[in-house]
Specification:
- The chain is an alpha+beta fold and 670 residues long.
- Helix content is 24%, strand content 27%.
- It contains 16 helices and 38 strands.
- It has a 7-stranded mixed β-sheet with strand order 1-2-7-8-9-10-11. Strands 17, 18, 19, 20, 21, 22 and 23 form a 7-stranded mixed β-sheet that branches. Strands 25-24-28-31-32-27-26 form a 7-stranded antiparallel β-sheet.
- Helix 6 packs across helix 10 (295-304).
- The model has no long low-confidence stretch (mean pLDDT 91).
- The structure holds MU-OXO-diiron (FEO).
Length: 670
Amino acid sequence: MYCTRKVLDDLIWVGADDRRLPFFEGVYGVPDGVSYNSYLMLDEKTVLFDTVDKAVYGVFLENLAHALGGRKLDYIVVHHMEPDHAATLELVLQRYPEAAVVCNAKIQTMLGQFFPMDLTGRIHLVKEGDSLSVGRHTLNFVMAPMVHWPEVMMTYDSTDKILFTADAFGSFGALNGRLFADEVDFFRDHLDEARRYYTNIVGKYGPQVQAVLKKAAKLDIAYVCPLHGFVWRSHFGDFLEKYLLWSSYTPEERSVVLAYASVYGHTENTANILAAKLCEKGVKVRMYDTSVTPASYIVSEAFRCSHLVFAATTYNAGVFVTMENLLHDIAAHNLQNRKVALIENGSWAPTSGKVMQEILSGLKGIEFYENKITLKSALAEGQLAEIEALAQAIADELAPKAAVVEFAEAPANVEFKAENVDNKVFSKFSYGVEVLTTRVDGRDYGCIINTAGQVASADPKKITISCIKKNHTCDMVMKAGRFNISILTEDAPYSLFQRFGFQSGRDVDKFADLDYDVRTSNGIRYIPQYTNAVLSCEIIDVKDLETQTLYIANVVEAKVLSSAPSCTYGYYHAHIKPKKNPAPEQKECWVCKVCGYVFEGAEMPDDFTCPLCKHGKDEFEHVVPEVKPKQKGYVCSICGHFEPCDGELPADYTCPLCKHGREDFTPAEQ
Ligand code: FEO
């Protein structure tokens, strides 16, 4: 039975998943399967874009027949002749004898090599810049040599702005019913397999990928349809950014991948000691045993991380076989611009360090640490200092210490006196307002803050935030060691501030009923609406500020979400926070300037803490109501705004604060 999905009304996915394939291309394990994508365009002419691997030809032919609905097939656009996409081409050509093949000259040559069939009169040759009208759609052809074979080309449909990208932007993993990247949490759940796919399949050809990305940058793209993995119809720029990094051999993260090959455990023990020392110094490390983890995963990690440590025993007067395979694989994939440390082991003639260095030394931009460590059978007590020195050398680059500041001249010691500090000054700062989010033990937390600011501009950039200790999110940020900041914009509704600012994560799930669940690569949610940017941060230092905790953090991911202006703390007070309504009985009270909480009574205890936003008495305004006659009007049930009015509100009336209409107002007297 057919199994298809619509990309658009006139573009149908007719591909298939393969979950029984143990090794893609006979070498790359695919525990989550793989998809072979093929697409059928239904215009005045019908156009099939590529076919599939022979393993799934049955359902593919059913899909194609169903999607055609009895129409004949006019064109088959062939982007790539590798058999995972072209193995079924011969069958399709036999079954649809009127179909012409749209391809370039290199593809025509390979067609003849793979399928010695007579295609006279059935080839429509195209080259860079050619186009083909198939009715409403115009197809434009873009050559993409070496992404991943020399014959590869792409097609850009300038009508619906669809780019068919062949292998580019593909991923390992079956689709499992999903088709679009926005139907999954791609960056949390699928980025690793997309990276492993890219680095192992196309990673060697970074300059060629860059050349195609330059061409693509000139196109207005709404849909990206690759031959494996998900179709992109939103947030493609985020994935494109990863491609720009991978294809330029730029690390995504300043951290260490430590791969070791150990026969009897002594090299592994040394690797563990180094990893522990690195972690103590605040360096992020991921470790892999080359005899356990297939090389494709470690190659992918080597593309992700900035620093590589290889530790291996000597074997057959060379280097242990699994490490040798890995390093040849890394070299074959042309990895560049990495800092490498080596540890060799050998009981009588250690040579693995020399061999490892030789394998990698031809790669561009590879720099070796001078502190190469040689073990004789096992790490000797006296060599702990060498491990410490290597860990320190790496940490000095990856976990820079704060500079110690020495004043040239001792500053005058000015004593604090409260009367010398006008609290109104602090409302003159133009603070932004942000939603701080984090995640602990599978649960999401968030609160409003107005304390985020950049404090260092060198990479990785640093920001600080401070958080009221009584806020549950503050504790959770400490536990998680990382957080996201979503920068709020001026159109943010008061309800968003109420959701994240005026209730506690101890009592409620602040994310309940939100109609979005989006996360950055660190798995933490962010707020995609009423925000213009999100930053993902890793905490590097914490300071106790008595009532607040100050976090200093590296920005490890940051992206712009919109061009809307940022909401400042002043804008929030002037335009978003509802103007406070006097207490119904006109009682004397104290009103929290931060969240609007009303403490009724003439006297407020000095140690009082706002139960909603946790600010102290200093943030409360003492309100002594004037005695004046009550006024008729209407109160907004959404934001509390009171609109004086003797008669009926006009039919087109909208609340000046929250923009809700007359139906949300009820009569009131104030
Ligand atoms: Fe998916 Fe290069 O084939």
